[in-house]
User: What shape does this take?
Amino acid sequence: MLQNDDLLSNMDLFYSKERLKTFKNWPFKKSAICSPIKMAEAGFYCYGDENSARCYFCLKTLEGWEKNDDPMEEHRSHRPDCAFVILNKKEKDITVRDMINLMEARFINILILKHDEDMGEIDNIWKEFQLAKFPEKK
Assistant: This one.
């Protein structure tokens, strides 16, 4: 669930060196295709359990990683519309304009996620109301 400060929290995770720090307990090491470095370079940070990662930009969470998974290919196949995937640049080549566009995409994704959570909550309240007001006849 998102908190009110999520738009501005973890801004440092924009950078791969900061995302890399989240992979301390990652099950795969440097020799694996699915190494912490490759995960961070593909936009992911370790999220939840030790075999789960979330893209900082599109917020897609992927679980069940395997040693030979290519992080960028997995990212591309699950979220081809991710601004980071579409940009397809090494971090050193990202311009200020690119940074602004990536952060804009992140903010939009956070707002969409928050909206979806709120709508789910409203839907649950509505269902409870309907059941209380109009109980099913047996």
